[in-house]
Write a structure and sequence with these properties.
The structure is a homodimer of 332-residue chains. With 332 residues, the first copy, chain A, is of the alpha/beta class. Chain A is built from 14 helices and ten strands. In chain A, strands 1, 2, 3, 4, 5, 6, 7, 8, 9 and 10 form a ten-stranded mixed sheet that branches. Chain A is globular, with a radius of gyration of 19 Å.
Chain lengths: 332, 332
């Protein structure tokens, strides 16, 4: 049996990094991307990484229009590695990229990102993947991996319940581990997504609103307390939604962040580059889910309102057609 | 009986405007100021105003050191018109500026500003004054009054209870009204200070954090809702502290702001100029008072934490000895 084939949608910091490593490990990998097609066809894909550089001279890369016309061969696994703000644009491509038994992997931030994907290919299994990585797209087909890289994987169920460690999850873990990527399989996707939000919700938002690094937010006693209060709101939201979080988790997150190198958060990088912020997936979805379960995330909602304001103003200022792309820095 | 004499401490947007009008109305007015003494002695005090310009060629002006040495003749009324961040610096001057029966007027923003003043001159009556004015100090002894100007006056009581319309309040109202200033006397100082905070707490803070005018904050549905939620927190804080606010007041404030010209808030101007923000008086005092009464102002406290962070960073960046002064724009 040969290595499973992959189609990776998105050639940014996430898709570029993980796709290149899967290709280097012997998987047939096809990339589908909105931009950079010619540059990558000519110049290949290069990842600089403390884990070892990867240089792929001959890359199968298609633009989204080709995928839309059904010109891309179906793969065993389709990885959605675009920012959540671009998910809507790629849903229509999915049916043509799969064959019977293909698995879709949502390698994205936030809560509830698997639902629309599952709706687009209702006969297929969807696996959620959370990447804890500092990686940047520094040019077309050029990725700079700075630190971390662990992926947490869990099976999506339409009813939100824990799916357990399914065959699909095991297969994705095997492929990623075989590509040298630390990968953790867990049985409850919603719980894992909420736990990741405990970090993302305070640091992403406050880093944008206050134009600050995580180190600055932790050094100031007031913002450190605010970070912790927001973390507790996310924990309470998760608990209200039926996935309790250990009380020790907040202290762990704070402690991990204290020890972290002062990278900029992905949302701060997006904001600085004039790209849209992932507010639906990281703020709106958990706030709504918690509210539906009877818990009001007050500070989180206030931060969300501030971020919407800044994002809307940035949209008005950024010229239409300005360069967009993905980059992720702080473990995101 | 001659017109009552005034000493005005602070020659900024507030002290300069009201002091000049009192002088033009025939009151002997002495100014005490940290800076601008020579410039005002030489060049006088000029106020440009839609209510009519005032130009005073011969101004009695003293620096704070002269006041400290007791070289300033006591006045019937001493007006504290410095920013609350500078109150601590002027408390020691007060005993030498008063005679038996002098009234002190705290013409400042925020909650609880009269307490330290009353402690500094315990034998004297203290009147709180809230100015609803757009005025800027545009140079030494140069004030530009843009709009509004109404003053609300109430007598301070150590126990925080309503003092009623006292002789001291009536006398201050008479003097200000005689100087052409719309003045309102009310019987409950704490209630009036809380009501003013209903406006100041959301707009001052959000205008700094989001670098936005009141018009922008009102045009965005999310920040407009956040403004209103913070207003309701201030109303609830006031109510918890024993001074209920009419339910219609929030709608009135929103409506007034919709109709207001888009001035920058005083706190935004302070922040842009690298001056310290009046966070103790406008945020810390009401948050603590409400908490002591059993109500937690959650969104207000989060905003306060954000402002402390920005203020502390600004303090680190602003060179020591940079120009400081007062300017007030949005009705503050």
């Amino acid at each position: 049996v040969g290595a499973r084939s992959y189609t990776v949608i998105g050639l940014g910091a996430i898709g570029g990094f993980y796709g290149a490593r899967l290709a280097a490990a012997g998987h047939p990998v096809r990339f589908v991307t909105r931009s950079d097609v010619d540059a990558v066809r000519d110049g290949g894909l290069r990842v600089e990484s403390p884990l070892g550089d990867v240089a792929l001279a001959d890359v199968e890369v298609h633009d989204t229009e080709a995928a839309r016309r059904g010109e891309v061969e179906p793969s065993d696994v389709v990885v959605v590695a675009v920012k959540t703000t671009d998910t809507a644009d790629v849903l229509a491509l999915l049916p043509a990229l799969v064959h019977d038994g293909s698995t879709i992997v949502a390698m994205q931030n936030g809560l509830g990102v698997e639902g629309p994907i599952a709706d687009a290919v209702p006969e297929h299994e969807v696996v959620g993947a959370m990447c804890f990585i500092c990686s940047n797209r520094v040019g077309p087909g050029r990725i700079r991996h700075l630190d971390y890289g662990r992926v947490t994987v869990a099976h999506h169920r339409r009813d939100g319940a824990a799916a357990g460690l399914t065959d699909e999850v095991r297969a994705v873990v095997d492929d990623l581990a075989g590509a040298g990527i630390a990968t953790v399989a867990i049985d409850d996707l919603a719980a894992a997504r909420w736990r990741k939000l405990v970090w993302n919700v305070p640091y992403n938002g406050l880093s944008v609103v206050l134009d600050a690094g995580t180190d600055e937010l932790m050094a100031d006693p007031g913002t450190r307390r605010l970070v912790e209060q927001i973390m507790w709101e996310v924990v309470a939201g998760s608990t209200a939604c039926g996935t309790p979080v250990d009380d020790s988790f907040v202290a762990e997150m704070l402690d991990d962040t204290d020890k972290m190198s002062p990278y900029a958060t992905s949302m701060k990088l997006d904001h600085e580059a004039g790209r849209p912020l992932e507010l639906d997936a990281i703020y709106d979805a958990p706030i709504r889910a918690a509210a539906a379960a009877g818990y009001e995330m007050v500070r989180t909602a206030a931060l969300h309102d501030q971020l919407r304001f800044l994002d809307a103003r940035s949209r008005r200022i950024t010229p239409a057609g300005a360069a967009r792309g993905t980059s992720r820095a702080t473990p995101s």
